């Protein structure tokens, strides 16, 4: 091997990540020439006269750069390169084979063995320096990338821990939210109310409920808080306290009369009370839509308020279906809103469906929204063989089965199903 006299370069050259070089050559003279020149460039140099010795050295610690002869007795350069790459280590080492072979087939064999570059003997100083500099740039980028990956892995590990903690909290929050709806089905004489509540995540912004302060009178509601997630769920928890079915003295939809019994307030008055409470709370940007209805079971007299919520679907016993209400403004948007009451009379066998827009704004397989017409068709189909909770379960099943393939719920889905059969 001959190294040109031009190899006498400045010792203060910056070769980046390359600090330690392993020279592997069975020729002591060629090693001495290379070692002397590399040391002048500022490298720490380790020598080996065979591939076997080089492997043992590398097991103790990897160099930054390997310069290995191709042809050596025993373990040749290709075999050494394969064995070197098989060593387990996170640090990458740049490997240059020194050879007199220049055929493309031989170069391909070297690349397949794990070599990064080749130098054709006799060596020229400028080319040697350029190849080492190129290797240094690659190592610099690789190690910079490794450092960034370690930072990312550390950050991901911390995020996983945080996610697990949040996930546990959300699971507990879902249990608390489920407690706001202690029963999904209840009979009131011959009539009954069934509830459906399906959040699209751990927790949701929909709320349904029912209560009865005494015989023959019941109230039920469907609420959809703006937004999704934790903020909306916190609002539903608050509303669940306002419309509690267990503590009548805290329920804003009732008032105690003659210090003996509770009576249901008119629906439009309940909406106004809730609106005033939300508007009085500074810093709250959420609002909600609602349908709240009360029924006198003795005569089927239905009174309800619709505050921006989807129109309730009245399913007459005759098979006719109609939507009730005039829309109205959501609760919590504007102060001093006048909410309007809708009244009608139910006949025995009539049914009323309150639902959130998670039904009507759900996309079906053709990409369109289910909308009110689709909801009405679905309700009439489900009504044929189902009643009570089974009707709502069938509605929800059909809704999910009709979604485009590979999609899931994009919004919370909830409903109240009232079946009137007198008192």
Automatic annotation (TrEMBL):
The record's SMART domains line, in alphabetical order, gives: PP2C_SIG, REC
Fetch the InterPro entries from UniProt: Bact_Sigma-Reg, CheY-like_superfamily, PPM-type-like_dom_sf, PPM-type_phosphatase-like_dom, Sig_transdc_resp-reg_receiver
GO biological process: any one?
phosphorelay signal transduction system
Q: Which residues carry this modification: 4-aspartylphosphate?
A: 69
Q: Which CDD domains match?
A: REC_OmpR (cd17574)
Pfam families on file: Response_reg, SpoIIE
Keyword list, A-Z? Hydrolase, Phosphoprotein
Any one GO MF term held by the record is: phosphatase activity
- Record's keyword annotation contains Hydrolase: yes
Q: Which SUPFAM superfamilies match?
A: CheY-like, PP2C-like
Domain (Response regulatory): give its ranges: 20-136
PROSITE patterns the record matches: RESPONSE_REGULATORY
Q: Which residues form a coiled coil?
A: none
Q: Which PANTHER family match?
A: STAGE II SPORULATION PROTEIN E, STAGE II SPORULATION PROTEIN E-RELATED
Descriptive protein name:
Phosphate regulon transcriptional regulatory protein PhoB
Q: Which organism is it from?
A: Ruegeria arenilitoris
């Amino acid at each position: 091997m001959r190294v040109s006299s031009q190899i006498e370069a400045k010792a203060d050259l910056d070769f980046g990540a390359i600090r330690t070089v392993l020279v592997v050559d069975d020729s002591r003279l060629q090693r001495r020439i290379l070692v002397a020149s590399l040391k002048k460039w500022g490298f720490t140099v380790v020598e080996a006269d065979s591939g076997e010795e080089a492997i043992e050295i590398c097991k103790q610690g990897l160099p930054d750069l390997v310069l290995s002869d191709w042809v050596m007795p025993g373990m040749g350069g290709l075999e050494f390169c394969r064995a070197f790459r098989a060593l387990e280590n996170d640090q990458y080492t740049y490997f240059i084979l020194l050879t007199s072979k220049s055929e493309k087939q031989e170069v391909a064999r070297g690349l397949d063995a794990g070599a990064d570059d080749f130098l054709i003997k006799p060596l020229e100083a400028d080319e040697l320096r350029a190849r080492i500099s190129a290797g240094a740039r690659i190592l610099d980028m690789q190690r910079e990338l490794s450092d960034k990956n370690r930072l990312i892995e550390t950050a991901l590990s911390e995020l996983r821990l945080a996610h697990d903690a949040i996930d546990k909290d959300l699971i507990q929050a879902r249990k608390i939210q489920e407690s706001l709806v202690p029963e999904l089905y209840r009979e009131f004489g011959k009539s009954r109310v069934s509830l459906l509540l399906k959040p699209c995540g751990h927790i949701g912004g929909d709320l349904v409920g029912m209560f009865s302060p005494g015989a023959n009178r019941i109230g039920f509601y469907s609420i959809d808080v703006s937004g999704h997630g934790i903020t909306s769920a916190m609002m539903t928890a608050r509303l669940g306290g306002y419309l509690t079915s267990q503590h009548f003295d805290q329920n804003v939809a009732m008032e105690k009369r003659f210090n003996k019994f509770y009576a249901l307030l008119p629906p439009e008055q309940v909406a106004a009370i809730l609106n005033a409470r939300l508007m009085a709370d500074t810093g709250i940007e959420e609002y909600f839509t609602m349908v709240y209805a009360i029924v006198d079971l003795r005569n089927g007299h239905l009174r309800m308020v619709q505050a921006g919520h989807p129109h309730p679907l009245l399913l007459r016993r005759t098979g006719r279906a109609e939507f009730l209400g005039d829309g109205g403004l959501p609760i919590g948007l504007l102060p001093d809103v006048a909410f309007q009451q809708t009244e009608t009379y139910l006949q025995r066998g009539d049914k009323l469906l309150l639902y959130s827009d998670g039904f009507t704004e759900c996309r079906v397989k053709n990409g369109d929204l289910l909308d009110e017409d689709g909801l009405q068709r679905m309700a009439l189909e489900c009504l044929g063989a189902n009643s009570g909770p089974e009707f709502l379960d069938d509605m929800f099943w059909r809704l999910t089965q009709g979604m485009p393939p590979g999609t899931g719920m994009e919004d919370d889905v909830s409903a109240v199903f009232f079946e009137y059969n007198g008192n």
